[in-house]
Amino acid sequence: MMEHTLISKPDFDTQTLEVSLGPQHPSTHGVFRMNVVLDGETIVKLKPVMGYLHRNHEKLAENMSYLGSMPYTDRLDYICSMTNNFAYALAVEKLAGIEVPERAQYIRIIMAELTRLVNHTLLIGFLLNDLGAFFTPVLYAFREREKILDLFEEVAGSRMMCNYFRFGGVKADLTPDFLPRVKELIQNYPRFLDEFEALLSENEILMARTQKVGVLPKELAVSASITGPMLRASGVPYDIRKVDHYSLYDRFKFRVPIGEHGDVYDRYYIRVLEMRESIKILDQAVKEIPSGDVISKVGAGFAKAPRNFKPKAGEAYGRIEAPKGELGFFVVSDGTNKPYRYHVRAPSFINLTILEDMCLGHKVPDAIIILGSIDIVLGEVDR
Amino acid sequence: MFGIGVLKGMAVTFKNFVESYYKKERLTTIEYPEKRLAEKERFRNFPFLIFDEKPEDPRCVACDICAKECPPQCITIVRAQDAQGKPLKKPATFDIDYSICMNCGVCEEVCPFDAIFMDHEFELAEYGRFEDLNYTIDRLLKPKEHFMKIRPTDATRIEAELKKKENAKKAAAEKAAAAAKAKAEAAKTQASQVPDTKPETKPNEPAQPADPPAEAK
Amino acid sequence: MDQLFVHIDQAIIHWAQAVLPDWMAVIVAMKIPIVAIAIFGPVTMMYLTLIERKLLARIQNRFGPNRVGKFGLLQPLADGVKMLTKEDIVPEKADKIAHLLAPILIVIPALLVFAVLPFGRNMIAVDLNIGVLFFLAMSGTTTLFIFTAAWASHNKFSLLGGMRSVAQMISYEIPFVLSVVPVLVVVGSFSTVAIVEAQPGLHWFVFTPWGAVGFFIFFICAVAEVNRTPFDLPEAESELVAGFHTEYSGMKFALFYMAEFMNVFTVSALVATVFLGGWQGPILPSWVWFLLKTYTLILIMMWFRGTFPRLRADQLMGFAWKFLLELTFVNIIVAAIWYEMRSPLNHLTAAAILIVTIIVLFQFNKTEIPKKRIYKYAYAD
Amino acid sequence: MEVLTAISKVGIYVIFGVTLLGAMMAVTLRNIFHAALSLALTLIGVAAVFFVLRAEFLGAVQILLYVGGIMILVIFTVMLTTRIGDRTIPTSNHQQWPVLIGALLLLLYFVRMIGKTPWSIKSELAVVSAVQIGKSLVSTFIFPFELTAVILVAILIGTVILAKSDEGEEKS
């Protein structure tokens, strides 16, 4: 990490300036606060303050039926409710030993990859906003996101708070024109990405701003248990879809892009490349999706009467490669219809812990984009 | 060459500027109050209660399942009583606090009587924060036709199922009545409660798993 | 058509001389351009906000304001009413006097510089023989008031914005002023009218090698001078909330806005005057040419805003000191050589020297130029 | 036309008054930031005087350099002083009286000198153009001009050396 010492000479006193960035600051992506000590505009100390959006998610979950927490998981990372559902469903299915029909698995993968597109597109837009672009990239991102949200609304009934997954499958089958529309999206999305990249990737201002800024070394990233695109940008080839073989990801051919420098530009570009890989997965999934049930018999029964869902005592940890990193749910059952312990391993929160190390020695605008490149959603950080 | 990326970016924005005047996929905005998007059939907002013929007879039997399963606990149900204080199979109060409801749709899924559904209505702004958003039964009740209008696919399926069930029930009731008659004739003891208690105990039984595949589709 | 406004001016003066006493007629004659500017400045500002909002909206695939009046044409009025009726909030710890004065004072230089702009043939309020210098001096004072506002707000974000503003201004003022020098050398006068008259027809300075480079530098510095993207660091909303005007609301905020947009107009007008031949141009009336060129430059500035992210303060200053400044120095010499050679060779020589300079400067700054990257994949299929 | 002359006279006196007022405030105000602003006011006033005297070039340069450059630096320095918290500083000390006497003596001397000098008042204002100033700078006044340039270059080099040595220390 960059060492920084105040210029201290006899007869030459400098003063540090303490600034509280947030919680109402426009670029903290929600109610997040950074207490920053500045020397000029250089950051010498940074203390993140969290908890403004704490909603007692874990304790609430311990006081309601297993399925009752499902709509609440939507509200963790409200950009990608589908993947949150996915991770929670996986954890509980592991706990209760529920099988998932193949069609449901495919639907889940389609939804997860669509969510990845939503999240990465939006993140890049907001990162550019943090960089000072006047809303143009973010609005292009919104324009494309709307198309995917329309698809979500089509099948799940809600654009953001999908609440679509059930233990043992998904809530409802795809509508007849869902798959054609996904195919159309797969056709059009690379074109949008090309345009987006023409606008951004080679822009010298963006490159000058992001390269060599907020470097996260490999070793530090691993020891701080960073996951997701951030870890891969630092050069660690770790993708839970490849490592954990969950769901049916083994059937799909896709590559995992790896960064080299671990700076903000790498984190930006890795996400662009990941979107292209996601489109590949979607393409395969849409072609290969089998017909059949979308929820197992047991699962459907419990979806109708969540109170009767009483997994036998035990514990399970289900994890997925969420767009932001490893999203895991740890559930302990004591045999009743409420979980005994419920814990969320939130990627936003754990990736955020490394913020100070990346920011020291950089300027205020760099801190803003470093925070933006971590990709946090305060709903998930504070829970 | 330095500067090409900047020019490329400007070309992209210029293209967007020009094309926003004549290409629909560039300018996707729908000018809302005048124009509206077609509503998706599965769209869900806040729940409403359904009645078959007249609002005094809602389908809801006040079994309290939705209130218990509701994750944010926004439903309050008090069962109606007749003059003797005997509980009736309909709600006296059925309040849904729309300010608490998070439109997750759990109530709709768990209801064994297909009495509560998610509405498409979303222009619900009110001046009061508490009273105005606490929807009482008279504001919640909507006719069967409304449901048929907003979600035709689900509605036809559910109606068909209900009809089937009713027919089966009728047949069963007839059978039971016949049996009862036979029994009464035979033993002349009380036999009238049998069909009465049945639906009340039903929800807690795992009787539902029988129809999920149909539900899922 | 060409002399339309001049004739109107003459007519009013004639009328005044006929009706009013002598001394009042003189005052009226003096006041006409002042009144014209006092109306033109704010109205331009109001509609520039609308143009900017519409343009950015279309760039971003939105409609932009279209509710107040046809095409949102009354939107500026609605904004004005809103600004006027908003509560004026003064922070308790603020330096009340300076907090009040800063937004008022910042409008003064913005209005004053209109005086030396030649809007068309014979259409200039005051033909100062130091016109360009006057303009540069006046626009330079803006920073003082920005800084006053920043300091008076007693807010750390404002203070950081003020500091950035000063650093940026000190960096860009120098290439800004020096990039005009080639023109002054060639024309031999500071007067804006003389500069325009030295570019008859289509012989605009931008079509000479030194003029093209000078135009490039001058325009970039002009964008930096008026704090527009990608040089809008003093009011960087994603970093400093709103920079120096964080603590301003209502009409005071509107005054800052007014100053900014009037500066955008005047600076574009100056660039058009100095390098694009001002009101010179075939067929169309002179003032149409002038407005056409000015608005083209303004639209380019807005286009920048719709496209670019913001530079960081140190990169911004590095660009000014390590690249622009050197280039301006070379450009002055090149202009002198071009002027002295007076042969068809002069264009070639000038262009050659400038290209070599630019390449050399790039070589010197090589370490700071970002590079494209190639990414590897794990689990390749 | 007397009215116009009167008006312009009033205008000139207002400019003088504002300039002097600014100067007074610059030394008497307790708030150092206000004092600096008053100084800026004085400098602008002086520039206005130059304009009135038709020395436009000098006026513009006065604003460009003093208001746009030096005043900014002064305010920047004011801001960077460690006394940000208490923004008032004592403006008087025990040397008031000697200074006052000295100032009065100086004033008397100035008045005498002004009275003694034979001012050559022409009926027409001599407008000095920028070209003339430029030509005289590189002909008549070439020596002081070049000397100033050399001093400025020396200052620049000195600053660079100072800044560089800072950097070196920081790294070690």
From TrEMBL, chain A:
Q: Which PANTHER family does the UniProt record give?
A: NADH DEHYDROGENASE [UBIQUINONE] IRON-SULFUR PROTEIN 2, MITOCHONDRIAL, NADH-UBIQUINONE OXIDOREDUCTASE 49 KDA SUBUNIT
So which domain of life are we looking at? Bacteria
Regarding the membrane, this protein is recorded as: Peripheral membrane protein
Q: Which UniProt keywords apply?
A: Cell membrane, Membrane, NAD, Quinone, Translocase, Transport, Ubiquinone
Which reactions appear under catalytic activity for this entry?
Answer: a quinone + NADH + 5 H(+)(in) = a quinol + NAD(+) + 4 H(+)(out)
Presence of keyword Methyltransferase: no
A single GO cellular-component term on record: plasma membrane
Report the protein's function.
NDH-1 shuttles electrons from NADH, via FMN and iron-sulfur (Fe-S) centers, to quinones in the respiratory chain. The immediate electron acceptor for the enzyme in this species is believed to be ubiquinone. Couples the redox reaction to proton translocation (for every two electrons transferred, four hydrogen ions are translocated across the cytoplasmic membrane), and thus conserves the redox energy in a proton gradient.
Which is a Pfam family this sequence falls into? Complex1_49kDa
- The protein in question is named NADH-quinone oxidoreductase subunit D
State its location(s). Answer: Cell membrane
| NCBIfam families assigned | PRK06075.1 (NF004739)
| HAMAP family referenced in this protein's UniProt entry, alphabetically | NDH1_NuoD (MF_01358)
Which organism is the protein's source? Candidatus Abzuiibacterium crystallinum
Does the keyword field hold Cell inner membrane?
A: no
Q: Which residues form the NADH-quinone oxidoreductase subunit D domain?
A: 130-383
Give one GO molecular function term.
Answer: quinone binding
Q: Which gene encodes it?
A: nuoD
Main location class: membrane
Q: How does it assemble?
A: NDH-1 is composed of 14 different subunits. Subunits NuoB, C, D, E, F, and G constitute the peripheral sector of the complex.
Top-tier EC class: translocase
EC number of this enzyme: 7.1.1.-
Q: Which family does it belong to?
A: Belongs to the complex I 49 kDa subunit family.
TrEMBL record, chain B:
Which Gene3D superfamilies does this chain map to?
3.30.70.3270
Domain 4Fe-4S ferredoxin-type span(s) in chain numbering:
47-80, 92-121
Q: Where is this region: Disordered?
A: 165-217
The biased composition feature labelled Low complexity covers: 204-217
- GO molecular function terms listed in the Swiss-Prot or TrEMBL record: 4 iron, 4 sulfur cluster binding; metal ion binding; oxidoreductase activity, acting on NAD(P)H; quinone binding
Would you say which domain of life the source belongs to? Bacteria
Q: Does the keyword Transmembrane apply?
A: no
Its GO CC terms are: membrane
Q: Which Pfam families match?
A: Fer4_7
**Keywords on this record?**
4Fe-4S, Cell membrane, Iron, Iron-sulfur, Membrane, Metal-binding, NAD, Quinone, Repeat, Translocase, Ubiquinone
Which PROSITE patterns does the record cross-reference, listed alphabetically?
4FE4S_FER_1, 4FE4S_FER_2
Q: Which PANTHER family match?
A: NADH DEHYDROGENASE UBIQUINONE IRON-SULFUR PROTEIN 8, MITOCHONDRIAL, NADH-QUINONE OXIDOREDUCTASE SUBUNIT I 2
What is the recorded name of this protein?
4Fe-4S ferredoxin
Q: Which organism is it from?
A: Candidatus Abzuiibacterium crystallinum
UniProtKB/TrEMBL annotation, chain C:
Q: How does it sit in the membrane?
A: Multi-pass membrane protein
User: Where is this protein chiefly located?
Assistant: membrane
The record's EC number reads 7.1.1.-
* Top-level class of the enzyme under EC nomenclature: translocase
What parts of the sequence cross the membrane?
23-48, 100-120, 132-153, 174-196, 202-224, 261-280, 286-304, 316-339, 345-364
Short name of one Pfam family: NADHdh
The protein's annotated catalytic reaction(s) are: a quinone + NADH + 5 H(+)(in) = a quinol + NAD(+) + 4 H(+)(out)
Keywords in UniProt for this one? Cell membrane, Membrane, NAD, Quinone, Translocase, Transmembrane, Transmembrane helix, Ubiquinone
Please state where this protein is localized.
Cell membrane; Membrane
The UniProt entry's GO CC annotations, sorted and at most eight, read: plasma membrane
Q: How does it assemble?
A: NDH-1 is composed of 14 different subunits. Subunits NuoA, H, J, K, L, M, N constitute the membrane sector of the complex.
Its protein name is NADH-quinone oxidoreductase subunit H
TrEMBL record, chain D:
Q: Any keyword Transmembrane helix?
A: yes
Against Pfam families, the record matches this protein to: Oxidored_q3
Q: Top EC class per UniProt?
A: translocase
Membrane-crossing residues?
6-29, 36-57, 63-85, 97-115, 141-163
Annotated membrane topology is: Multi-pass membrane protein
Q: Where in the cell is it found?
A: Cell membrane
EC number assigned by the record: 7.1.1.-
InterPro entries attached here?
NADH_UbQ/plastoQ_OxRdtase_su6, Nuo/plastoQ_OxRdtase_6_NuoJ
Q: Name one GO molecular function term.
A: quinone binding
Q: Which GO terms describe its cellular component?
A: plasma membrane
- The answer to whether the entry has keyword Transmembrane helix is yes
Q: Which UniProt keywords apply?
A: Cell membrane, Membrane, NAD, Quinone, Transmembrane, Transmembrane helix
Record field: catalytic activity: a quinone + NADH + 5 H(+)(in) = a quinol + NAD(+) + 4 H(+)(out)
Q: Record's superkingdom?
A: Bacteria
Tell me the function of this protein: NDH-1 shuttles electrons from NADH, via FMN and iron-sulfur (Fe-S) centers, to quinones in the respiratory chain. Couples the redox reaction to proton translocation (for every two electrons transferred, four hydrogen ions are translocated across the cytoplasmic membrane), and thus conserves the redox energy in a proton gradient.
What family does the Swiss-Prot or TrEMBL record give for this protein?
Belongs to the complex I subunit 6 family.
User: What PANTHER family does this protein map onto?
Assistant: NADH-UBIQUINONE OXIDOREDUCTASE CHAIN 6
Name of the protein described by the UniProt record: NADH-quinone oxidoreductase subunit J
Per the UniProt record, the source organism is: Candidatus Abzuiibacterium crystallinum
